[in-house]
Amino acid sequence: MQASLFDNTAEPKAKPTTLPATQKQLRFAQQIASRTKADLPAELWTDRKRLSEWIDQHHTPLPRTQFSNYPSSKQVAFAERIARLKRRQVPPECFRDKTLMSKWIDSNR
Questions:
Q1: Tens of pLDDT along 69-79?
Q2: Residue 2: CB partners within 8 Å, gap ≥ 6?
Q3: C-alpha to C-alpha distance for 86 and 80, rounded to whole angstroms
């Protein structure tokens, strides 16, 4: 006999307690493991949460200083608008340093 939808005697389906890791997670974890020479246990591949914790422990983000000194796109657009109105060129070094760009804008307003 089949259990109906409203029958409380039917056993509920067991929900999986863990979700498998995503392909993106696995690729990222393998990149970290190869870069840091860390051991990536195979049992983590079947548990998304545990793999995420492993990634958090072993991932060291790259420093953001590489592009932090460049002027913002709004700053560049404003400087180019000023240059067009004044019929001048923005010096090339200003595009590599936000402080220089700011000084150029202040002196050419």
A1: 899 999 999 99
A2: none
A3: 10
Phi and psi angles of residue 67, each rounded to the nearest 5 degrees, phi first: -115, 10
Q: Which of 55, 56, 11 is nearest to 29 (CA)?
A: 55
Secondary structure (3-state) at 106: helix
pLDDT higher for 5 or 17? 17
Residue 70, Cβ density class (10 Å: 0-12 exposed, 13-18 middle, ≥19 buried): middle
Tokens of 44: 């983590």
Q: What's the pLDDT score for residue 46?
A: 87
Q: What is the pTM of this model?
A: 0.45
